[in-house]
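Need Putative restriction endonuclease domain-containing protein's 3D structure for a figure. Predict it.
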Amino acid sequence: MGVEPVPSWVIPPPGGFTAEGFLRLTGMPPHTELIDGALVFAARRGRWHSRVINRLLGELDRQAPAELRADREMTVKLGKRQAPEPDVLVVTAEAYAREDPSTYYFPEDVVLAVEAVSPDSEDRDRTRSPASTRRRASRTTGASRTTAAPRPRTSTSATPRPGRTP
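Structure prediction for Putative restriction endonuclease domain-containing protein:
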């Protein structure tokens, strides 16, 4: 049994990947993210993770005012070298209905980003992703927005409790 060659798109260009280049890549595994110019591949997700996402998505969308919608697992183009994929997002209804771009959101579209914490990404989900998303979204929507909209927030869900399923 031989080792398969690494696909050419895995090799970063000099200086690392940019969000623009990342968003044009094809053939990547599901839920690949761009963090600090590097590709980050997600481990296979289990039932707990999927159930948490489904429940959060349903409840957030059900309770959101008409000008907001919940979505799942969409990339957010935060900056030149940052394009994370939060598990659940609450975005403006305008962004949700927008046809182009259809594969990602801009920071100003995002009101809330949620990560269901998984063992393979606990550090990233609890510290790096929330801080980066919050910092970028706040810069974009904070002082420059003229309407009284909620400030962008990032949250992480609790880890699963033993003996309890969502």
